[in-house]
Write a structure and sequence with these properties.
By secondary structure, this protein is mainly α. The protein has 3 helices and no strands.
């Protein structure tokens, strides 16, 4: 797994800093992209799919707050 992370991290468009484990997924762009997916799913009547991805965002936020609480 380290070799894959090193290879992907060598791509200057990504960089290795995005491949380290953290208290939640991705930066603000990844969450923004998922929320756009939620919107598109809702627009096309895929309410269950939209709800699923909305819960992914909610779970990620919960995880970040949980870890921050532990650190404090």
């Amino acid at each position: 797994m380290q070799e894959v992370a090193r290879a992907i991290g060598s791509d200057t468009r990504l960089g290795s800093k995005f491949l380290k484990a953290g208290p939640g997924f991705g930066g603000s762009c990844f969450q923004k992209d998922i929320l756009n997916l939620v919107y598109l799913c809702g627009h096309y009547g895929l309410q269950e799919v939209a709800a699923y991805w909305q819960q992914v965002v909610a779970l990620n936020s919960w995880q970040q707050q949980r870890i921050a609480g532990l650190a404090v």
